[in-house]
Specification:
700 residues; alpha+beta; Arc Repressor Mutant, subunit A; Alpha-D-Glucose-1,6-Bisphosphate, Chain A, domain 4; 9-stranded antiparallel sheet; 8-stranded antiparallel sheet; 14 helices; 23 strands; 33% helix; Homeodomain-like_sf; HD-Zip_IV; transcription regulation; transcription
Amino acid sequence: MDSGDEQDVPDSQGRKKRYHRHTPRQIQELESMFKVCPHPDEKQRKQLSRDLGLEPRQIKFWFQNRRTQMKAQQERADNCLLRAENDKIRCENIAMREALRNVICPSCGGPPPDDDPYFDEQNLRMENAKLKEELDRVSSLASKYLGRPITQLPPVQPMSISSLDLSVGGYSHPGISPSLDLDLLCQSSSSAFPYPFPASMSELDKPLMVEMATGAMEEVIRVVQTDEPLWVKSGSDGRDILQLETYDRMFQRSARQLRFSDTRVEASRDSALVVMNAVTLVDMFMDASKWGELFPTIVSKARTVEVLAAGMAGSRSGSLVLMYEELQVLSPVVPTRDFCFLRYCQQIEPSVWAVADVSVDFPGDNQLAPSSRSRRLPSGCLIEEMPNGYSKVTWVEHMEIEEKNPIHALFRDLIDGGMAFGAQRWLATLQRMCERFACLNVAGIPARDIGGKELAPSPDGKRSMMKLAQRMVTNFCANVGASNGHKWTTLSGVNDVGVRVTLHKNTDAGQPNGVVLSAATSIWLPISAERIFSFFKDERTRTQWDVLSNGNTVQEVAHITNGSHPGNCISLLRGLNSGQNTMLILQECCTDASGSVVVYSPVDLPAINIVMSGEDPSYVPILPSGFTILPDGRSAGGYGASSSSNPMGGSAGSLVTVAFQILMSSLPSAKLNLESVMTVNNLIGTTVQQIKAALSCPDV
């Protein structure tokens, strides 16, 4: 209360009588007296009342109010000091906890010993003395029994087996190859690029690059727009087949020098409608990061090496970039394909865009000798804007391939038939991903109950959940293929493919820190891909293949639709009767004409609640496992984005890849041991056996 405020004093009849505010002189005199004597006696109060023209009661009330005000100010100041001191102590406590949690031994990389090493040494000395006495006693008894003293036993050499060297002679284990190389630890593969890129293009090289890109653009437009005799429809499945002789005549193929001997040519063309406008598509195609996000199941790495031309102001037309990409099939069995290429964009009509790619050679890259040598001939697409927000995309893929090593028989038909890297796969994936982006703007998902709490995400929560699931799928795809950044080692396993294992360090945000063991194998099943996908997607059949569920059923507690196909969805699964009430399973199922993916990862309930509230999911740790399902390519019928009536292809069988990721240790210096290898080998083998048994094909 301000010392100069008006005061209400009751009169003799109980009514309140209002006095005017004290004058500045009165307040000054009262403050001066308060500094000298905060508790004036009656004599002092009367003297002040005479000097200031105030009633003694007014003087008394003023001093009471002033003392209360001073006490409140002092308490507030004390509270601020205590709060600051408390915050300081809390921060120091957190820092000390983190330091204790992260402390490691500098010699072995492990946690420091809890006991004093002095006492450990003394205990060992005492134990050795007891053992020596026991040895002397046994030796004395033995000498009496033998009638002669026994010779002193030679010191036993300790057996030292490196945790990474399990191929020591004389050591073997069923299911483990004797030539196993477990020195697999490598850094993150995202920064590993096999091409020796120059620091920048010289001014002399740029005109040549522009000329190459312009020629590639002209060729792509002609190849896309020309039908017979350049392209002929296949009689079996209606796919477009490139007539190489006609192509050579049209584009003077005979004058070209093939880069490799015994080169195999792959060419394909297809068209489809996608739910995205042309400008957005062009922007994503010209940005290497967005390009990788758009095709996570195909592009394992993508990088912009240099922007040679930025294009017209406010438009991508005329943009020319030098890019690198690594393409994959989602199995460690199939080698990746690397391309360093020019990508050129041009708006050829008001509503039509063209994007053209052509490979670029650098001196010295022929010394790298990868397992698959790939060169992209002029390829690309025409994107036509449609009036309803859709775009019609016509895609052409044309490349020369020389396989240094033979393709595994399991995937040979798929690769040789052009299905693995053809235009149909690109367009099928593009259609599905565009539908996924469109679903971001659809209303939220219905509320479900988890542990007595209603799970009702907001629109922002739905978008956060979809971003988390997309990161999960991208991480899975990046770690299941035969990327140059992975060093896969084969264990003997379920078939001639074997179980492939590799290690990598996780240091990125959103992943558990430490050393992760990845393991995968691929099998062939004489069952349609559609049936296998439904089997993995259905939570009611999960106990038939999920070894880690211990037979506990799961219940879907949240469902987000990702596209027009009912199989494209994100689910939150809760285990029933598992005792893990705080853990859920995040699962995304993706399917299109080129194949299917089912990816899942355990996520704790507090993290899910944060995501559902719309917070940034980038720091939610996930370690995904899952399955990839591909048509085996042994029957050509039904494959193709534009002509197939069967969305999963018409092949007689399917190629299934089973992949797990396990956090082996939270220490970055941890090394692989036999126990981890056996655990993941048994996990893969048991899962494959249960899948075959559930699908009634145990003898395959």
